[in-house]
Amino acid sequence: MIAKIIDGLSVAAGIQEQVKVQVESLARKGVKPCLCTILVGENPSSITYINKKQKAAHDVGISTKDLRFNETLSQEELLQVISGLNSDSNVHGVLVQLPLPKHIDQNVIINKLYPLKDVDGLTPFNSGMLMKGKPAITPCTPTGILELLDFYKINVVGMDVLIINRSSLVGKPLACLLLERGSTVTVCHSKSKKLEEKLNRSEMIISAVGNREHFTLSGDMVKPGAVIIDVGISRFKGKICGDVDFDSVRTKASWITPVPGGVGPMTVAILLRNTVSAAFSAVGIGNMSIYDQHSG
Ligand code: GUN
Asked: Are residues 276 and 26 in contact, defined by beta-carbon separation less than 8 angstroms?
């Protein structure tokens, strides 16, 4: 068997075209959607991600603020920045690039963010709604993965899915989204036992380890016909690669995402879509009136 390729670049391009149309529709209402990204410190991967997000926003006509701070920024100073953005009606979406430096408590910062501007879907309101099965703004990478599966008509109902990642950005929201769709989900992480056994019986594997030296998913670990979604990105032997040993897994799987060109572009496309939805909410259009119902 040779797996079919899940082409994230082309699906993401389609979503960006839809976003452009929505940006034009907002322009007719006198609204220019604006995304503010916040980067603290100089983590090279974070700089690359932020540059990509900024460029993609410009390409679809979303205006941006690009706030970059020195590693020494205090938690209090960052909270003040968030407060300012919460009350700035020209800013519709705010993304705080993670990880933050160790002296800043990520949860304190995210909790400060106004949920209607939380285009990453990480605030307690947005993650709570997702947990209740009433998604409002959902995290970009998990949402992008679901979009890819839908695009290729990969039916996840009743499927045994193994996720290797338990973070709030990927593993936990992805598990919620897949459970809502009727998958049987197992979430593994660095302390999980008998990972190989679990991998071998899974019909879909979503791997988001991001450390190729530490973990590589190879063909012998995969059940024949499994769907393989590679979310990991790391530099290995001088090359950017995912968690998956593409050549060996491709001969066993039914579908596979490449790295680059798989999940990564979808994360960015969904961020743009979430930003436009946030701008629609700001003018009273969309499903986020749900927030007012719940915020008292
Ligand atoms: N760091 C790695 N991926 C992401 C993401 O999707 N959002 C944020 N905020 N930080 C990240």
From this structure: yes
Q: What topology is assigned to 140-263 in CATH?
A: Rossmann fold (3.40.50)
State which CATH number among 3.40.50.10860, 1.10.260.40, 1.10.630.10, 1.10.3720.10 fits the domain covering 29-116. 3.40.50.10860
From-to residues of CATH 3.40.50.720 in the chain: 140-263
CA-based max dimension of the chain:
56
The CB of 267 under 6 Å from ligand 1? The reply is yes
Indicate which residue's Cα is closest to atom 2 of ligand 1: 98
Q: Closest by alpha carbon to 163, among 135, 221, 202, 121?
A: 202
Instruction: Please state, in angstroms and rounded to a whole number, the distance separating the CA atoms of residues 148 and 171.
Output: 17
The rounded mean pLDDT for the chain is: 96
Work out the angle at residue 125's Cα, subtended by the Cα atoms of residues 73 and 274, and round it to the nearest 5 degrees.
80
Pocket test for ligand 1, best of 67, 98, 113, 271 (most atoms within 8 A of CB): 98
How much distance in Å is there from the Cα of 50 to the middle of ligand 1? Answer: 9
- 87: alpha, beta or left? (left if phi > 0; alpha if psi -120 to 50): alpha
The string of pLDDT tens digits covering residues 77-89 is 999 999 999 999 9
- Ligand 1 mean position, distance from CA 138 (Å): 13
